[in-house]
Each structure stands twice: as C-alpha cells, then as structure tokens.
Amino acid sequence: MKKNDIHGLHMTIGTSPVSNLEMALEQELDLVKVAILYADSVKLYSPTYSMLHMMSQMNDLPPQLKVRLLRRTIPYIENNSDDGQLKYFLKGYERRIRENKRKEIDLAFQQQFENSWGQIQDVVLNILRNTPFHDLANMVEAERLEIHPFRQSRSERMIVENIVDCIALASRSPKLKSRSSSIDARNDALITEFVNGVSDAVTSGDTYPLFDSETSNLVRLGVKEGKIKVSDTGIRQGKHSTLAAQLFERLPLFEQASLDEILDIRSELEKYLTRYRRAVINFSSEIRSAYWDDDFPIEAEELFIREVAPAIQDLEETIEENKILTAFLKKHSDSPLILPTNAALGLIMSQNLPGEIIRGLGLGIAASSVAFVYGVYDEWKSGKKVVEQNNLYFYYQAAQKVEKRIKKRK
Predict the structure, then answer these.
(1) Domain ranges within the chain, ordered by starting residue
(2) What is the pLDDT of residue 178?
(3) Which end of the chain is more exposed for a tag (fewer CB within 10 A), N or C?
C-alpha cells in the first residue's frame, strides 16, 4: 500500500524486538488492537513478526534449502544424541538433490529426512502457537493490517538463516555461541532498517506514529542527537495517536478483547468515531510534552483525571436519566386505557417509537394522555440524540461493548 493511496487516518506501529520469545508479539497485539479500533489503515514495523513470519514459511522452501535448514538446526533440537551421523546423512542427501540425482534417494533416506523435518516442524509450530502470530496474520489476510517486509524476508537463503536463529535462540543451547556473531550481524541489519522505517514515520507527516516504549526511546535519542528531524505537525500527530492508545488501554478488560471482537466493535461504532477523534485531538493539544518524553504519560494521566473522567461521568448520568424516561414510557404504554383517536394514534406511529412502546399504546390510551406521553417521548428522543452526539460516546460505548463481549465469553 502506497502512502499516497491511503484514505482516512493512517497509523504506523513500531515495536522493538524482544529477546524473550515467550513475550513475542504481545506488544504488537496490544498496539494493533488500538490502531484497528481507531485508525482507518495500519502498517506494522515489527522485526519480531517478520522473524516469526519467516518461520511460518518453512514448508514453502525448495528441497535443497529444506535440507540446509534441517542440517543447521539439528544441534539445537533436544533428544538428538547422534547429530553427527544425521549431519553426514543430510550432507549426502543435499548433494544428491543439488546434482539432481533424486532417484538415487532410497525410501530409507526419505523416511529419515521426513522424521527429522517433523522434529523441526514441531519446534516451529510450538514457537508460533505460543504467540499471537496467527491472530495478527488473520488481520493481514483480512486486509486490515499491512506488514513492512524487511529485506531479509525477501531471500529464501536469508529466511533459512533467520529460522535457524529463532530455533537456536529458543533452545538456549550452549551451542548458540557458535552462531552469535552471525546472529548479531543479521540483527544489526534488521534494526537499521527498522530504525529507518520508524524515523520516516515520524518525519513524513503522512501517518500517525504509534510506538512501544523502546521504540519511543529510540526516537527520543535520535531527536536529541539531531539524527531525526521532527516537524510540529509530526509532534502533534504522535501526541494524538499516543494519547488515543493510552485512553483505550485504560478501558476495563480491553487487553482481554480479541482482534475479531475489536473489529466488530469498530464496525458497530463507526458513525461515532469522527467526533471521538475530534475530542482526542483537542485533548492531545493540551499536552505540552512530546510523545517520546518521560513526562508524556504523567500529563496524559492528569488530563484524564481533569477532562476525560468527569466528561464520561456526565455522559453516564445523562444516559441514566434517559433510561428513566424509557422506563416511564414503557410503563405507561403498558397500561390499557381508552383507545386513542385515529389522528393521535397516527401521530404516535409516525414517530418511530420503540416496538414495545407502540404495542402498549395499541392497547389504548386516552387522547389527552397522548400529548403527555408524546412529550415525554420527545424528551427521550432529544436526550438520546444529545448522548450520541457527545464527543466521547464512541469511547463510552467501546468500553461497554468490550465488557459485554468478555462477560459473554465467560
């Protein structure tokens, strides 16, 4: 997706790599949920996702590279007491494939290869299964998330080396030292490309940057050293997106919501989002610190206490008052009195009252009561409109819908 083709609010997420694979993609998942709920299009710069995506492609490698991958990962697979003999077998197997002598590969060789390949597959599947990789991949497939393709992921040979790196790191084997220098070199290249990508997001003005704390710190250092030049517009965009993320992260149970649930909520509340963005822009303009500064979270906390929390409380009180009117209408519409005149009944029917109210009115009410009930209904309708036009209605409803879905799951 080219930036010039983007319509609406575009966010660029940047997440620094983690050394602990048990925590892999957790920060990506959190920020992608925020961005999918708030933005119109999202791009993710994540070395960790890129590495795991390369691992997911192992079955698509050509036979010769599969053998190479297997040969290089054997030292890091547990319960492999005779890896020397297996390496010797694989070297011969690789030579036969390279020389196009596959007919000479007998069934026993093929079976041993498949058994060994199965071991590697199990390791890879276990790593992927313990991360939210497939959740994010589903968003890519649904075209709700774009992933930056790092250069290393474009070469099959580099894919092999990166898969070996991941398996070696996951194994925590003492043999890992033999690859440490090559892993460092590949990581340096990956990080350089990553830093260039997030720097462009900060300076371009085409996107709203949303970074984890490590990446924000990289930006802070780059700005301090004069390596990253950020315009006033870039700073405003970063404050806007970062504040939006921090507000969503305050919602009860938000971290438990799945990406599919977030998508559903976004779809249901779409028409209220524009006003909410206006509120976030206004709120973010009150924060003096840049989004990478240590004081930004402190100012955001003060803003929430001073502006957001009271506004939400006012909104909740208005909603409660409107619920009382709804209950009143339902109560009086359920009371059978005198059948209204056709004109009065027609007036009521034309106002699109809720179904249960119309059914109750159909039982019969006095013509003099029609004006009274209609007046209450008019007040209820006016109150409902005021509530839905509140700038924070999207935020309030997002909280309600997340909580409802989580409780329904339980």
Answers:
(1) 3-213, 314-388
(2) 79
(3) C
